Description:
alpha+beta; Alpha-Beta Plaits; elongated
Amino acid sequence: MAHLLHRLGAFSARRRRTVLTGWLVFFVVLGGLTVAFKGTFTTEFKIPGTESQNAAELVSERIPGTNPNDASGTVVFAAGSGERLTSGERRAAIEESVAALSKVPKVASAGDPFATKAVSEDGRIAYSSIQFGANPQDVTEEETAAIERATEAATEAGLQVEYGGSAATVEAEAPIGEVIGIAVALVVLAITFGSLLAAGLPILTGVLGVAVGAMGITLASGFTDLADTSITIAAMLGLAVGIDYTLFILSRHRTQVADGMEIEASIAKAVGTAGSAVVFAGATVVIALVGLTVTGVPFLAQMGLGAAFTITFAVLLSLTMTPALLAVAGHRAVRGKTFTEDAHDEAAGTGPTMGARWIALVVRRRFVAIGVVALALIALAIPALDMRLGLPGDGDKGPATTERKAYDLLSTGFGPGFNGPLTVVADLQGVRDPQAVASATARDLGGLDDVATAAPPVLNPQEDLAIIQVTPSSGPSATATEDLVRDIRGRAGDIEREGGAKVAVTGQTATNIDISQRMSDSLIPYLAVVVGLALVLLLIAFRSILVPLTAIAGFLLTIVASFGVVTLIFQEGVGASLIGVSQTGPLVSLLPILIIGVIFGLAMDYQVFLVSRMREEFSHGASAQDAVRDGFRHSARVVTAAGLIMISVFAGFILPTDPIVKSIGVAFATGILIDAFLIRMTLIPALMSVMDRHAWWIPRWLDRIVPNVDIEGTSLQRDAKAVGPASPVAGD
Length: 732
């Protein structure tokens, strides 16, 4: 592989104009296709085969004209304290607003609160249920704005009007997270290299990688339904790894030029050595992301595939565009000093750097380092023992949002369970007296614990299906509501034996519970798949048994500690207000799997970049202890910069108000902080020092069958000694 990448780097440097022109043409063509064929993204979370999804499809089949995927919303009206909505002026204003709501484009129906008895007992709060004749992603901002205009009569009458579900206008947030991440990355790189030009190259390739991923995913949305979170994950990862991969190649190039190598020869060798590590690091990330398909969750698989697509192009850009840009920049990319070192010491790592002092301390106190890190991470992991999973709703929005205000008003007026009703579907095919059986089923459900009300059944015209609305006494994310869903499903057999009705539970609350359960069930199989594949990949890369095992052990410590931190913040509320989280509860159900997939891939990045340099030193004749020290010293500065960049990129996503994006940003930033600085730069070097030469042990029989991919570039070093120094090659 080293020879192949060396040739690729040499070609990209020599034919730099051709390479850069080729990428420019690619961007233009992809951008044109995206504009021509782009589609829309879905906000729905559903999993085929679950009880809630099957029940929703049964309703659509038995009641023609209904679509369980159609958008719905709520408009909530509230009078002041001690006032009633039933008085003449206020009632007239609400009725006028409801009449206007029914005329809004794509609104199929708007319920009259007074006709549907949707008024609280004290008469202060009422709501209109809105049903759209379109999917949620097809309801535009213009139409939700029209809903707000339709309620002006109520607002002018002095009523508080709030909107929930698809009736709420979702204001697009500026990409402040990405901007802050890029700004911090630029500062870190400028400090690392002492040159704005050198700092700008990784930023450029990182941004271009995100652009390719975003355009590709948007183009794909024109041909298939994609979750609206697909681009968010791809942007997070694409920006972070795109910067890092170029950073590693650039750092190696600067080291070699500082040692006297010619520019183009150095570019080719940097791609052949550091590029090999980039390929393996990228492969581990892609494996982890593609592995999300084994979960059986469509929207999660889409997120993984979209991010994997972005990572693939980040690798390609770093291996081709980066050497072309370095060739164009020439000596300008290797100029500059840091605050504490001259250019050669910063690049070659021969001065008394912070990394050298740190690794000396870690090796000297290796057993203390191992014990302290292990105990600290185990302590951080303890809150994860009580981790619960769910999906966020309007109750998790910020307190200033109209969705949250509508949620709170409905809870006040109608009870906390009103925001999470359960739709019980009774299949009455073959039942002799459908009305009687449906009524008996409703009475049975009404007697269960945690049921506030069970509405009378509504039968379809054929009387072979009944819908019973069950309102829990507790909120949609409460443990008691989950228990109620399980209780109803557990009694399904008894209900069928007693009257013949086959009942199933659906609705948004039940769907969220099913998704969370599927996520929980997928954790161990997914973890086994990515860990197993990574062990094989790391075995091939390092030709060692213990190095892959310690890498995986460190990753597992990172995962459980990250679980503990996000549980402490988002579920228990410790420090939640500091990052703008006002409502705590179960963790977003997709978060644990995303943490495993993303942090695993990035953790292996650091492992490959650090340990490949140690392996290189060992292969070139250094003792095992010297290889640990020298390899770390050469890599520490750039890996530190990479870790800080990723943390800043992910931390930038804590700023948006969306609870899913915020929790993902915290989880990823925490995971990288733990893995980069506690695991890869402390625990792993300490373990490598303890294992000494045994770290590189591999059975002879296994050594013979494992392909030699030469990740450390030993063959390039050997060939260079055989043929002498390379001469510069003229470029195009």
